[in-house]
Amino acid sequence: MGDLKLGLQLGYWTKGCPGNSQAELAIEAERLGFDSVWTGESWGSDVFTPLAWIGAQTERIRLGTSVVQMSARTPTATAMHALTLDYLSGGRMILGLGVSGPQVVEGWYGQAFSKPLARTREYVDIIRQVLRREGPVSCDGEHYPLPYRGDNGWGMGKPLRTNTAVLRPELPIFIGAEGPKNVTQTVEIADGWLPLYYSPYRESVYKDQLKNASNDFEITAMAMVNVDDNVQQALAPVKGMLGFYVGGMGSKKRNFHKELMARMGFEEEANRIQELFLQGDREAAIAAVPDAFADEISLSGPLPRIAEKIQDWKRSRVTTLNIFGDKQLLRAMAEMVL
Description:
This protein has 13 helices and eleven strands. The chain is an alpha/beta fold.
């Protein structure tokens, strides 16, 4: 395994505009030797604009989207964003994509959440066509037909090739994937994988899906880091996050986060968390999150314990560890990892 890199995860805004604080964190991360900085989007702040702001104030750190919600933009629009930001930043863009979930896709974007695997494959193929500029872009698929061929069109569309040069035709594309089939496809069509939860202690869960990954395939995993001499208190924010995602981010019939937790060996506990959450008892749902699971996917406790656990991540298949944190935590993590 190669050296473990560090990424700064900024996510999406949750309480209004953070001002220039995100750029200041990215500047410090770059100074400390972090490899990348990542932004996200849900149904508020977008994923590209903060990266443009940060990219203008930094020089080396890679700029990643974690993730572009595919239903928010057509594939050609996403390719335009990516090639533009890549040029402006001097070739630092990483395009992270994800299908999101049915609540957001159908409730916010007003689109059907159908056939996510096929949609992802078409989406990536079109972006690759745009970036490579080998000819006019076209697609015969059912999800993103180019040119448009619907009954209510004018019938005047024709395939086009982007009218600007592209700095990096092979701009790296990562995919946020959870289900086994989605991860397997990610290895086939993308340059990297953005898992939501990853346990360095249960890599057998991903063995079959990653068996065809090349040596330069990147895995950028996110881990919450909570420094506290009391391990139980350090795990509390992780359990709060898991209680919300496993319990409420989805329906009783389909919840990708719950299904992933079950595949990782905690099926009974995942079902119980969802049951309590859907009954309206969020506190009980959070309390039902096993400490063991929260501990495996995070770095929690006093600094010496975190430093010891980092060695397990270094021995894993993960190439970049993404973390949230203030400047003090960034410095501490840089000392332990880099």
